[in-house]
Queue: 2 jobs
Job 1
Amino acid sequence: MQPAPQTTARPSAAAGHAPVLALAKVSRSFGPVQVLFDVDFDLYPGEVHALIGENGAGKSTMMKILSGYLEPTSGEVTLDGAPVSFASSEDAEDRGVVLIHQEFNLADQLSVEQNIFLGREIKRGFLLDHKAMRATTNELLERLETKTPAWATVSKISVPEKQMVEIAKALSREARVLIMDEPTAVLTRNEAEILFRQIERLKAQGTAILYTSHKLDEVARIADRVTVLRDGRHVLTAPANELTEDAMAEAMVGRELSNLFPEKTKTSAAEAVLSVKDFSIPGIVENASFELRKGEILGFAGLVGSGRTELMEGLIGIRPATGEIRVNGKARQIRSVDDARKAGIAYLTEDRKERGLLLNQGMRANLTLLALKKFSRVLIDRDAEEKALDRSIREFDIRAPSREIRVANLSGGNQQKLLLAKTMLAEPEIVIIDEPTRGIDIGTKQQIYQFVRRLTDEGKSVIIISSEMAEVIGLATRVAVMRRGRIAGTLEGEDINEDAIVRLAMGLEGRKAEGNG
Amino acid sequence: MANATTAGKAAVKNGRPAIDLHVIGPIVALIVLIIIGALMNPNFLSYGNVTNVLARSAFIGIIAVGMTFVITAGGLDLSVGSMAAFIAGLMIIVMNALVPTLGTGWPTILAGMAAALAIGFAAGLFNGLLITQARIEAFIVTLGSMGIFRSLVTWLADGGTLSLNFSVREVYRPVYYDGIFGIAWPIIVFLAIAALGEIVMRHTAFGRHCAAIGSNEQVARYSAVHVDRARLAGYVLLGVLVGVATIMYVPRLGSASSSTGVLWELEAIAAVIIGGTVLKGGFGRVWGTVIGVLILNLIENILNLTDLVSPYLNGAIQGVIIILAVVLQRQKKATR
């Protein structure tokens, strides 16, 4: 081994002495496009190594090379010091290198147990040994502190539960190297805490963990070392405790990040554009009442599952609901998304891949789908559509390698910008944005915050649902906190802080107790 | 970002292969078939044969245009063959019943045509409502209605054949056998419907909505598309087009029986798929369907005209073509 270059810090003393998995001068191209340039990387047993970078920096490609899904175009992968060329991801898994995908690789119609043992079922003779598999599954699930039963069908469990099943599956393979692609993107705080405990446990057992996340506070907390990629190049590797979150962000973006959040509006006195009274969705939301004032950003905080998304889906007519909706003082019956559109309300879903965009279609067809009536009398005016696409690409800074690209091939950030452009094309007065920056890098996040702020400057009113506390606090002029299908309280101005939100979300105390805390 | 935009446009030209096999595949297959046919039999390109092939293609073709919309929206209709037989049977009964009051001329025939369209509309509505309102799989609903329609026509004909009044038949005959400018009416109707279908698919909100629903129903719903309404409209449109096809078909033989329109559903679906429409929805093209219909009928015609391969193997060759078409679709997916 060469002496480590200056940018490569050594892992903590607790970790092993030789890297278990490493890359040396690895490059990768897709056709004419090179996405990785001479990247060096090493991962030691018993360390948590965070890999961070903006969307499109090459993280996914690098993880896929490490786990046998892709081969490098040039350069070398070494496992236990010896050059290795994984024949496939299965080959890598057999050697103890397991990748947990961001998009789950689970068979929806099979049970949790069947998924965990898929392809490696325990057998007795020709028959499956259900007892042994059930026992192992239960033990794994217990270790992960999840309440999901082993017999549950995967299609019926929630997203965080699926994440836990993926992790259980990896654990069952006795992974020596665990590569996690944004595992906490879909987890609540509590669930993330459980995951972190598991990571600590695995680390203590000597497992090497490669971890990616857009949440830098998480990285600072659990990583031993941090590697930053930018535009396919290795920028730095350093011990996590030597890097501040700002330093990480700046290394990722390659420029100094000024304030992440734009200045807040001061419009608390304005009249209500939307008022919702006693709004209920059977079994999910109970008697929610709130007001949205003109030109403000109203935040909706609360735990995942507290009914925020469902409330909004009820408002736009996707879910059957009861209650009163007034837009600009006028009572409105909203029974479909089209009714909502006519009332000037638009909703940006949190699930842009399954509910927001047609992944197998181009940008133009996606952009105009919601506002298609604007573009068609009898026939669709294609020129007008093209012009709208030009305008949106410019206004929302959508960066696509080609105009005809299928939306599936856009990065998450650009998909989100396209979704935003699509929604704004319907010219809504009230914009509801659910998880505006999920799975999006920090540079694009900042842009999206600016877009949202621009909407309020244009006189539109915005509701933001977010599980990222910082986002709600940084953007919203008022924050409604939901708990178990009810609005537990609304915070305004100086009162908006993490502690107050958590208290309301957890049902610890009402607003009165705040002064003591 | 004007730069990025213009750069994007240039990249499309350079990045994509000049020839897209998926697009030209069906066209090439059609041309190859025409060349083979012309080489094997000098009569192949004769006016009589060309008219014959095109006119026979018209029934399936008209239905397949409607099927393109249903499949693009992620649906399927297995009942169209039985539906055609059912409509033909009822249409003949209606016309025969009207002879005493309206006579044997055009009033009776026009009433029969109106009945055919109305029954097609109702049959499509029946399928569509069960699929969109009762939320039963399209495959199951139309498998069921396939049996229902087929059984009804057999019952109406009492196991035999329903024959149109002979005098009416004489007046009606030209609708299949005549035309203008030497082009038979079925061909004119087929091409007009195909042209309209292509415009509707590519240039109207309905066509766009069908593709959106077929690619991802959730996305369509969240994008203010009236999903159920559009899907229902697709089945109704198909039903009406089956009615149109039946109107062109009845004057050909002047009768209907339990064997009318057998396997038409499979030919129509095959034509749609060969034409490049994706079976699970999300992308459809009507011109491709037209080519698909022509390919299927040309194969049959060539086998009938030449004695290289037994015409009894027609089904086998069509089967191979269908499977090949799907394999080509898959390759397109893999390379992207």
Job 2
Amino acid sequence: MRRKILVVTRSEFMRRVTSKTFIVTTLLGPLLLVGFFAVTIMISLSTLEDDFDGPFGATGMLRIGIVDETGVLGDRIIDQGAGGNATLVLIMPDSLDNQMTRGDVDAYVRIPAEMITANEQPVLYSVDGDARRVQWTLSEAIEWALKDYLLAENNISANVRAILDRSVFLEIFTNDAEEESSEEVEAEEGYYILGLTLGTLMYMGILIYGTLIMYAAMEERTTRVVEVLVSSVRPFDLLMGKVLGIGLVGFAQMAVWGIMIVGGTVLASPMIGLFVDPAMYDLPASATNQEILAAAEIVLPSISPSLFIWFILYFVGGYLLYGGLFAAVGTMVDSPQESQGLLLPLMMPIVISIIFMGPIMIAPNGPLAVGLSLFPLTSSVPMITRIAIGAAPYWQITLSYGLLLGAFLTSIWVSARIYRASLLMYGKKPSLKTLVGYLRSG
Amino acid sequence: MNSLILQGVTKCFGKVTAARDISFTATSGRILGLLGPNGAGKTTTIRMIANILTPDEGTVALDGRNVGQWSQEKMGYLPEERGLYKKLKVTAQLRYLGALKGLGAQESAGKVEYWLDRLGLTKWGTRKAQDLSKGMQQKVQFIATVLADPQLIILDEPFSGLDPVNSELLQEIIAEMKQDGRIILFASHRMEQVEQLCDDICLIANGRLLLGGDLREIKKSFKRDKLVLEYEGDVPFLSAMQESGEVQILEWREDGCVLQISEDCNPRALLDRVLSIPGLELYHFEMLQPSLNEIFIQTVRDEA
């Protein structure tokens, strides 16, 4: 690497990591991050759990009256229960009005007598919409009660019942092409999480540090330092150093955060334990994180070393490419306001690559998946997902990464041309035509 | 002896020719003044010397070798449009700019200290550039230009925004560097400064070199056509001379006048006539050398 790139990289890195802003955000970042994850985990757990007493579920106990006109299903239904923090009570039709007015029950279900013989359906009457949350569980309980009664009535043997209770769940296995062994790969959600993590990391990294790169390129022009700089260093070296330097600031900050989070979870009580009650899964209070996670059926994808390396490589590549593009935007505009119109289309490809993750996972070797994972602006997220699934042939990975690096160098080269040309445009509104003219002559 | 030689340098931007066939030589131990109206092509020419732009035609050579990356380290450039990183401390700023010119960390530290002291900025070294007054920032920019001991120094309007005391200080330093054998290019609109500082000049207008060479020679080549007369008494024939077109009275003063003399007028004969006026006391009779400003205006006007 040329010496001047190093000089610029070091300067850009040092002046930022020694700033108060950097130190404060680096220290406060994990707190915000933990807060963010805490809220996310709480929301998802509260919707996963059967009982809805989480902070974001409906609160309070529901009392649901069962008005059983058949005389045979009521007890069965109550035995089965409806979950969702609801209590089922059997009530007589004639005492119904009283109980409702007194507020003894919040809702009631009428089980019509014709349900057994004909196919008449039960109906739930509710004062407010709260009882809606037990619609599915209660339906299942009633259905089970009905079938249980009918099977018993028809003297169906235990054997047949056992047959009827059989169920099938299709598991998915993938061949790991490199290790040539068949190993269970995490549930589909695992790939999704991997792709999403990369997408989110890139999106956040680019948003934070890309903007820094843009401002840095812009600052040199608005403060007029630029002319002294280009009389000392080639614009390509200058912008390369800038993107690498500020890129390193981002990595340094993320590394510190990573260490703090890992250290924090090891030292402090396990984070997941804060939100999941071991008792909920019939585990002793002393259960380890892994045991709780296993019981909660939260599968964390286990990542092979080669996948991990590709993950880092694609993150770095994508991050640098966008850094170069942000630098290009910075060399074109004179104020953050002017950049708005250019940034939105620039961020679109990442968003698109995240949006298309579903179709990519369904057809990981389809034209959409292959196309998106080769095109440098979108390649990172789809390609890492495809590598994880084991769908990407080696030549595609190599080609995709080559294109990514080529696009990165091109972005710096173009930025450098514009940077040099912009010297000639002080005080002029850059039109595309003059810009192209200067690019040619610059 | 070191030299900077431009030969037939031309640069076009689209249909506009910013510099056309410009040739001149700047030598060490001399200051060359680049003069020209706004938009004349001075900055474009300087940028080609600084290897920021590449000429479409012609060559720019320092010590016989075409300028390039290598020459940038041997050159200090103070552009007219200049600035500093606002939030960076003065010392850090100078060290960075020094490092870009190839200065090592230790070497740079010593030089930064020396120059801050020389320009009375030592206690401002740890402050951010935005805390400095405009004049102080100018001085920091000047330090950045000379920090790496450049062999070629290009100063574009170096005194703008400086008070007389600091202008004087800078002039002193520039004079030292000239003594030291550096090649110095000085671009300015301020004629009196160019006249005072420069040994050679290049006058550029509309992208072309109109006039170039040793300043004294150039001034000599322009005729002395202005006459200052100071006397006590009355010179009766002046009005008649003005009417006949021999002279033109440019200015009446309390004790005399300034005349523009035409080709038909012989100054020596005029002096004899004045001296022969009985009772007239003549104190001062001087044929004035045209000022650089007049040469500039006349040359540009003739060209147009």
